[in-house]
Amino acid sequence: MSADLSIFFHPSEIGVGSFSENTLGSVTGFNKSDFPDISKAHIAIIGVCDGRRSINNKGCSLAPDTVRKFLYPLFANFPKIKIVDLGNILEGNEVEDTYFALSSCVKLLIKNKTVPVIIGGSHDLTYANYLAYQDLEKTVNLAVVDNRFDLGKSEDELNSQAFLNKIIIRQPNYLFNYSNIGYQTYFTNPEELNLMSKLFFDTFRLGDIRSDIQEVEPIVRNSDILSFDVSAIRFSDLPGNNNGTPNGFYGEEACQISRYAGMSDKISSAGFYELNPSVDKNGQSSHLVAQMIWYFIEGFANRKGENPLVNKKNCQKFRVALGNEKQEIVFYKSRKTDRWWMDIPYPPNKGLNMERQLIIPCSYNDYQAACNEDMPERWWKTYQKLL
């Protein structure tokens, strides 16, 4: 399998040289004279040096090696996690060539149960990440941290601000759910919000998330892909982006979201996009993205392998009746981590390959809402998509 991957990669210069003991660089297998063995790797770092479809952010193709300069001197507090750095996917003759290379690599890594961590590059690379799951014929949930939806129109060229529509209309379609984390209303067309509602997708305003950052945890715990556009981080914390704005997540919040994503047993790929080192200040933005990736890895090291579908003995079960007991919602609470799930029924004869959607992650707030006889929005949207 390593031989199949090696044809797509060019070694990163950052992998040449020595690193201090116990740093991330000292425990990572780099693409040097020999391509790293991925057979037992938990995480694979991938750089994608292509920003041709980035809108107003030329220079983001330089991000992979710049982030590595700050990532690998960080200390590794997760000795049991095997990490490899496969190097960089360079620009293909056409952008579609880059998409093909990235989707092929992600597909092979997922089949090997290795989590690819992609350092972009432009945000449209999320589309290539999704294509890997389509090739695997795997239904997926996509979580995107962004200050807008990047929906675009059907006639628009696929780019960093117009790729979601291409995923939604692509056939056959394997996208079950899309979750936007941190959109800002003044950047959002009301028609797009209406479409998200009609599709029963999840959208969370920046203010709502910042008022209770823990609500991000069940969102990413229910996702297969994390896509993080760093323009969602406020400009004062991350100046290395031409599309940065005064409002957004603080750096600490971005790291917390990344850690939650790493902890998710379901997330099988993650990407960090739109960092532009050419407009950065003293490497501040590159350092922040490096720390976000570090937190993702630390979160991965703390995965618990919890799944109520597999082992309900480690969970407490709660039944909540709504509307004079005409509707009952079953909740599960982990005895180990206090995390919550809820049961979503759907007709068993529909022949859909969505058994894993039967029990979805939720929060204590969802349980409280049900106890107050309010239907949790997360339950309702999932149920509607299963009909």
Binned, the helix content reads 25-40%
Gross CATH architecture of the largest domain: 3-Layer(aba) Sandwich
Write down how many β-strands occur, each being a DSSP E stretch of 2 or more residues.
Answer: 13
Shape: globular
Structural class: alpha/beta
Strand content: 15-25%
**First and last CA, distance:** 39 Å
Helix and strand element order: HEEHEHEHEHEHEHHEHEHEEEEHH
CATH topology of the largest domain: Arginase, Chain A
- Strand sequence of the main sheet, in spatial order? 1-3-2-4-9-8-5-6-7
Uncertain stretches: none
Write the SSE topology.
Elements: H1 2-6, E1 28-30, E2 43-49, H2 63-71, E3 83-90, H3 95-111, E4 115-119, H4 125-135, E5 140-145, H5 164-169, E6 175-183, H6 190-198, E7 202-205, H7 206-211, H8 216-221, E8 225-229, H9 251-263, E9 269-273, H10 284-301, E10 315-322, E11 327-334, E12 340-343, E13 359-362, H11 364-371, H12 377-386
Helix pairs in contact: 2-10, 3-4, 9-10
Detailed description of the structure:
This protein has 387 residues and is an alpha/beta fold. The protein folds into two domains: 2-301, Ureohydrolase domain (Arginase, Chain A, 3-Layer(aba) Sandwich), CATH 3.40.800; 312-386, no CATH class. Helices cover 30% and strands 20% of the residues. The protein contains twelve helices and 13 strands. The strands form two sheets. The chain has a nine-stranded parallel beta sheet with strand order 1-3-2-4-9-8-5-6-7, with helices on both faces. Strands 10-11-12-13 form a four-stranded antiparallel beta sheet. β8 (225-229), α9 and β9 form a beta-alpha-beta unit. α2 packs across α10 and α9 (251-263) packs parallel to α10 (284-301). The longest helix has 18 residues, at 284-301. The radius of gyration is 20 Å and the shape is globular. The two termini are 39 Å apart.
